[in-house]
Specification:
Layout: E1 5-6, E2 12-13, H1 21-30, H2 38-51, H3 56-69, H4 75-78, H5 83-89, H6 99-119, H7 122-127, E3 135-136, H8 150-161, H9 169-178, E4 182-183, H10 190-196
Parallel strand pairs: 3-4
Antiparallel strand pairs: 1-2
Helix pairs in contact: 2-3, 2-6, 2-9, 8-9
């Protein structure tokens, strides 16, 4: 039952947002903003999976290193990663050195390419789970923020059937929040207040 918190700049932000400048910028500029670019959606899905068991701030701090290590999330390149490349990735101190997660990125790249081949657009595939609509919820307390939904359940099930890994329903819901399919800024967050007045939120 945690409401919004006031930061040193006087702005009220969602309770999950720490005072770390990197996290503040992510909250203010990225989180909940609709994404429709295929590669960006793929990157965020992979990074949400990398977060499993860790904090999102840990992943944010490593994001630049991930982009460098994984060819800027070029799925065609990633899908071709053979054992020697994966072993080098596991020695890369800039990323989370977890074999299952590295292998998952490769599997996800292959699944992503198959979806694009069949559907033409990863964006269309991802947004179909809400019929292309942004789902807006305004929880008053942090405890009211969902960890999964029927929408994330459906996305998770479909992705798993297509060979994706680290795409459980909780991860899928966090991904949907991150890329703006779900806008779940808390009720009194400054981003919500600006948006409600019709002005650009970011």
């Amino acid at each position: 039952m945690t409401g919004v918190q006031r930061h040193a700049d006087g702005k009220l932000r969602c309770a999950w947002c720490s005072t770390d400048p990197l996290y503040v910028d992510y909250h203010d500029i990225e989180w909940g903003v609709p994404v429709h670019e295929d590669r960006k959606l793929f990157e965020m899905l992979c990074l949400e999976g990398a977060q499993a068991g860790l904090s999102w701030l840990t992943i944010l701090r490593k994001r630049a290193a991930y982009r460098l290590a994984f060819d800027d999330f070029d799925a065609e390149a990633m899908a071709r990663y053979a054992k020697p490349k994966r072993e080098r990735l596991l020695r890369n101190q800039g990323i989370v050195r977890n074999r299952l997660k590295v292998d998952a990125f490769v599997a996800n790249a292959r699944g992503y390419l198959k979806i694009r081949e069949r559907s033409g657009s990863f964006n269309d595939f991802i947004w179909q789970f809400t019929d292309g609509k942004v789902l807006r919820r305004r929880p008053l307390h942090l405890g009211a923020v969902a960890k999964s939904t029927t929408h994330s359940d459906a996305m998770s099930k479909d992705l798993k059937q297509r060979g994706f890994r680290f795409v459980g329903s909780t991860i899928c819901h966090a991904f949907m929040q991150a890329v703006g399919i779900v806008d779940e800024h808390q009720r009194n967050c400054w981003v919500t207040k600006i948006a409600s007045r019709g002005a650009p939120a970011r």
